[in-house]
Fold each of these.
Amino acid sequence: MAISCSVDRDTPSSIMAISLFALIRTSTPSEMLQQSCSAAQTGLEILRTRLLPSTVIRSACTGTLQLKEPLNFWCGGRVKPSTKDARPSEPVYEPATGRVLCEMFPCGPAEVEQAVQSAQSAFKTWSQMSGMERGRVMLEAARIIREQREEIANMEVINNGKSIFEARIDIDIAWQCIEYYAGIAGTLAGQHVQLPGGSFAYTRREPLGVCVGIGAWNYPFQIAAWKSAPALACGNAMVFKPSPMTPVTAVILAEIYAQAGVPEGLFNVVQGSAETGSLLCLHPGVAKVSFTGSVPTGIKIMEMSAKHVKPVTLELGGKSPLIIFSDCSLENAVNGALMANFLSQGEVCCNGTRVFVQRDILEPFLEEVVKKTRGIKIGDPLQEGTRMGALISKPHLDRVLGFVRQAKQQGATVLCGGEPYVSEDPKLKSGYFMSPCVLSNCTDEMTCVKEEIFGPVMSVLPFDTEEEVLQRANNTTFGLASGVFTRDVSRAHRMAAKLQAGTCFVNTYNASPVEMPFGGYKMSGFGRENGTVTVEYYSQLKTVIMEMGDVESPF
Ligand SMILES: NC(=O)c1ccc[n+]([C@@H]2O[C@H](COP(=O)([O-])OP(=O)(O)OC[C@H]3O[C@@H](n4cnc5c(N)ncnc54)[C@H](O)[C@@H]3O)[C@@H](O)[C@H]2O)c1
Ligand SMILES: C[N+](C)(C)CCCC=O
């Protein structure tokens, strides 16, 4: 650890102006290679950086980091913001402290054009490589992520607010995803079909071209990996737009791909909000849009993509049911309910926030779940013992607290939490923390039971019979995930078959193996991420028909 946390603890009022480049580059800024992009004449300064070996800073402290480096990335390097026609920068906050971490410069039409051109240029090379060749480069990217796991996880924590414990898992899932699709790249193949008279036909699995990825803020690095890994494995290039609230780690992924040896411009990052995202969706040079975010934005993405008949993948929100039968292991069910509600401060799309509990075990369930929820350690997300960090922003925190207030007004009982959490640590006093909340006496009509809260709020609802709970669980426009706790195997399969959701967790919740497809039913979206099926969403099939004889014509 070249600069340790103790430096800051000794001088708590000082801000260590550590640059992100200091974390990941091998040279000083003056030594940095600065080139103009050969792919697109950007007229902007492209800064090519390389990741540091493990002797560099392994961690930064909460409340110390300031990032100065450009966050846009194309033509193989970070791109300095334009001096003319620049859009005003937007502050990016560190959720645990409320401090400004960096400034994000949104991309306008000119920058989006450059990024798309950069991707188009790289696509020409990448799409002509064999799957094995592509897979080898991706394996190297996965290896670098493993090597830089701690640095990337720290960055994720500082930018997103989740605990370091969880961020490490997110980074692991990201490299596993890239490794998985690296393996699949070499297996991509068409089909050969014999036709009459010695003629034959075959299919070619071809890439789509430049794919756009648009991400949400809850899993910034993981979402960038989930979209880029299958896209790149299939031979596509990508322009990725992270959420404006979490712009930091997608750029690190871009640097890692570059260091691993992808062609310059293969994976690009453009920063910005709705305007930048719209420019990407409407760009005629973009072949596909993969979106993760809310339902209302997903609808707009689909509308915009329709203009050029672009295929879309939509990973949207949810209000998933978790159904706990009285024949379950109560201890596992309580742990499952916590996993289903309080990971990443409850900011998880597939969370099982409608917890249906069979009436005869309602009381012991509530007693245990409240006891364990009260024991969740909230605090500095970079501390090892912390299990709940800060929510993403002050407006989002206020919104989540508003849902709790409204639930009380509508008759729910707050059994624990649901309050702003103020840490004794002075540096966290302006952070966006709240205590995890369990609501009882909920009914299906309450807002807290119907709407996605995207915060640490669990609504508990009693039920009596299997038929009744199935009907209530499916009575929603969402369909992302579902969960069942029972020891009855037949019932488990019956429920899994009848629940209208893209995933059903049985006697667990929020497990996320990269081998398994993830995605929604109903308004939670369509298309899938992870698993072999995702190849279908990032490639197209061409049929080639070969006549070996003469052409028989009726004319
Ligand atoms: N199903 C999944 O895999 C999944 C995963 C994570 C989050 N989510 C969902 O995401 C939501 C929370 O994330 P959020 O608040 O960032 O969502 P959001 O819809 O506000 O934004 C998502 C992304 O879309 C961009 N965007 C916003 N308006 C746009 C427009 N008009 N055109 C193009 N891009 C636009 C944003 O800048 C951001 O990058 C929740 O509903 C959650 O359930 C779903
Ligand atoms: C990795 N999890 C926990 C399954 C979350 C997937 C992304 C949803 O927000």
Amino acid sequence: ESPASNAAAGIDTAAIIANDKTTREWPSYGLNYAETRFSRLDQISDDNVGKLGLAWSYNLNSRRGVEATPLVVDGVMYVTASWSVVHALDAATGEPLWTYDPDVPREWGVKGCCDVVNRGVAIHDGKVYVGSFDGYLHALDAATGERLWKVNTLIDRSKPYTITGAPRVINDRVIIGNGGAEYGVRGYLTAYDVETGKQAWRWFSVPGNPDEPFEDDSMKKAAETWDPEGKWWEEGGGGTMWDSMAYDPELDLLYVGTGNGTPWNRLQRSPAGGDNLYLASVVALDPDTGEYQWHYQHTPGDSWDYTSTQHIILADLEIDGDKRKVLMQAPKNGFFYVIDRTDGEFISAEPFVQVNWAEGYDDNGRPIEVEGARSRTDPWETIPSPYGAHNWHPMSFNPDTGLVYIPAQGVPLVLQNNPNYEYNNTTTGAPNAGLGWNTGYFFANVAPEATPFGTLLAWDPVKQEEVWRAEYVSPWNGGTLTTAGNLVFQGTADGRFLAYDAGTGELLWQTPVGTGVVAAPSTWEHDGQQYVSVAVGWGGVYGITQRATEKVGPGRVFTFRLGGDASMPDSMVIRQPSDLLQGVSYDPDDVPAGGALYMTNCLLCHGVPAVNNGGNLPNLGYSSPAVIRNIEDIVFTDARAALGMPSFKGKLSERELEQIVAFIQGSADAARAAMAEQEKASSSGD
Ligand SMILES: O=C(O)c1cc(C(=O)O)c2c(n1)C(=O)C(=O)c1cc(C(=O)O)[nH]c1-2
Ligand SMILES: [Ca+2]
């Protein structure tokens, strides 16, 4: 009998709540409804973690980002890879049980801002739910992987909506949001009946067409905080709920984090200003009806892509002598928030990294903005950048240490108001505008002052201060897991998987895993044995264009246990300086114009040629000369459609492509010259 045959039959809301007493299973994205990612399992501990070894690895056949947390129930693991493919495995052995491929049309790839990723499934009563990148919610038979039903969650399939987040199940509803606010959509969250897929409710996060009635009172209230001209409606306004949710069964409140405005630049989106509710907020809804209950807005009038879709954790903390039911969040904007989850009352907010857009928060929970932090005509560096001081990579909270473990980062970027901004126009020099990105900013060609960093922060949410940290070589490290064994687990951009002492931050164990890690680990128990699993596969918005590893493997799941002795699979070297493009003739005078066109059409997928190391999409500065010889075929036909590459026929002229090629070869030549210079300097130095 297949271990999957009866799998997941007993999983429902009561079971997820009951499991939290033992945490033997990992039945939902954040482990429990409070999304703590704190496991009570302690067989693997700070005493013995040095004996952790590989139990098995499994090849996900995935070359793009893997962001899923592996769920495990009844000895079966359910994990997703890029393009929303679901894999069910025997959790103890890694043997495949079934695979479900929703067959996302590869043309949909270009509708996503941030890689064709998926963060995992939800499980309920013998069913597995996955949201596919092209906007469907699929219900699968947990035993066989057969599809039971599929519903279209999108209100308009011509718009650039995508799904990357994991659904959550509360009672008899399965809930899913979507993304798309970089291009221009109106964000909403929808609940479906777990059995039939029939829609139960939908809540929009921003007001809609001003010529039509409001969907509910929350939209009426929100509309007062947007420019009365209704200009935002051209693009949808944004506010997409593409990742975080949490649920408090006692209060019966569903919490959801909302995204940035479209376009990013408020000057262009809502010229009269305003808070633009409910962008960049946490919102409490009635999970049964979807009715709005309250909100707290972290970034009023967001103008920096400061989403609040980042991980939400619920905990009961003692603050100033009182036990408070709190909600904790570390959104992109760089502040750590503690709010009262019963009514949204602000308790505290402190920066967990350097920030330059706000000095802090007043007692009413409003940011004190720094003069000049918004939409300037001259280039200015906003810290954090739109990559966020913390992105979707899940954090975790350990009640034993009282600490939150945050994958924090800095990815410097210089912005500049785009005065020529118009919805859907292709302003040359505006990032990926040729593909429909509409941020309302240029990425200015000015070197940022800040340096990139990636840091694991252990944060005390009561004192609102750092307790310990671990520094990494690069931003964009994995989500975290913490356990009653006094451990914190995290994978890194440079392809390692690590365990720390949760109290002190001492590094206790590490292993290479062949490629960069962005996903968060999970831990679970089977036949008396504790396992730790992590899905690896470099990608996401930062990982499309750059990486911190020299070797890569395909996306994989690694599962560890004490005494595990399986052997590590091989990975391969991707690229050396000698692979830099050479021999393409070009006119150096074409380089500047080519650079602007490159920015408009190529940058956000292919990175800066020869400067970024290349991510999970090719860096064109390392193209082979044959690719450049065939470049008209690649750019003006559907030759690469199966990989998600769109045709630029009608968007670029042959002359413009020639200028882009000049920029690519010019950049490779410049990089080669710089390396030679460096070598000369270092050899004459000794
Ligand atoms: O505005 C949106 O709708 C939206 C969606 C997504 C997504 O669905 O992945 C991301 C973002 N924004 C975003 O701003 C961002 O930094 C980001 C990173 C990632 C990722 O998976 O690495 N997704 C997203
Ligand atoms: Ca966004």
